[in-house]
Design brief:
Elements (H helix, E strand, L loop, with lengths): L11 H4 L8 H17 L25 H15 L7 H19 L4 H15 L1 H6 L12 H13 L3 H19 L15 H6 L8
Helix pairs in contact: 2-5, 3-7, 4-8, 7-8
Length: 208
């Protein structure tokens, strides 16, 4: 199971002040070339439409493509693990809403981080690089949780810095969206802000 580390639960604003990947020239050229090739080959580049997905009560996506949604539908059970409900309907709803919160968070990032994430997602969604660099043979909609967990562990322990950084980006953006939601605070051991602080500053109450 891929467990979150303490550094994975930071706020989106903190992550927006730093690069997700910091790949260097070689990594940037590789990711940029893959992203361009994926677009030319007809991979999804526009945000998912409501008609494409029932995620999170018809949430209107602004960054995630339909391919990105399918990618994280496969990865979330491996990343979050037992934090997800076991009941199928509740599990499906939790995954859908977490992906919607991920999209809502990414659109608040600066353009540099958005570009890095787009290139990373394109690398994972583009068939040839999914197979050769991620070593994931089936398309993401057919990837089991065991296969997704194996992929994450390969990138986590890889000697290739680009893969390590890609792993951390996937973990961070997922954990912030999941554990940053107030209903999931107890799963990370965070009891929430003190009641007196919330009573004194009601404008900062987290929406349900």
């Amino acid at each position: 199971m891929t467990q979150p580390s303490p550094g994975d639960h930071g706020a989106p604003a903190t992550m927006d002040r730093r690069s997700f990947l910091r790949t260097g020239l070689g990594g940037a050229v590789l990711l940029g070339g893959i992203s361009l090739t994926a677009g030319l080959m007809g991979c999804a580049t526009a945000p998912a439409r409501n008609s494409d997905t029932a995620t999170a009560d018809d949430y209107a996506f602004r960054f995630f493509t339909r391919d990105d949604i399918v990618l994280f539908e496969a990865l979330l059970p491996a990343i979050i693990g037992p934090g997800l409900p076991e009941a199928p309907n509740d599990r499906r709803q939790q995954i859908d809403r977490t992906i919607a919160r991920m999209d809502a968070g990414v659109v608040q990032f600066g353009s540099a981080n958005q570009n890095e994430l787009r290139q990373l997602f394109d690398l994972l969604n583009f068939g040839p690089t999914r197979v050769t660099l991620a070593r994931v043979w089936p398309s993401w909609e057919h990837v089991s949780t065991t296969e997704a967990n194996a992929f994450l562990n390969r990138w986590r322990t890889s000697r290739v810095g680009l893969f390590n950084k890609g792993y951390m980006a996937l973990i961070k953006v997922t954990n912030v969206a999941f554990y940053g939601y107030k209903d999931n605070w107890p799963l990370s051991g965070y009891p929430g802000p003190p009641a007196w602080a919330m009573d004194a500053l009601p404008q900062f109450r987290t929406r349900a």
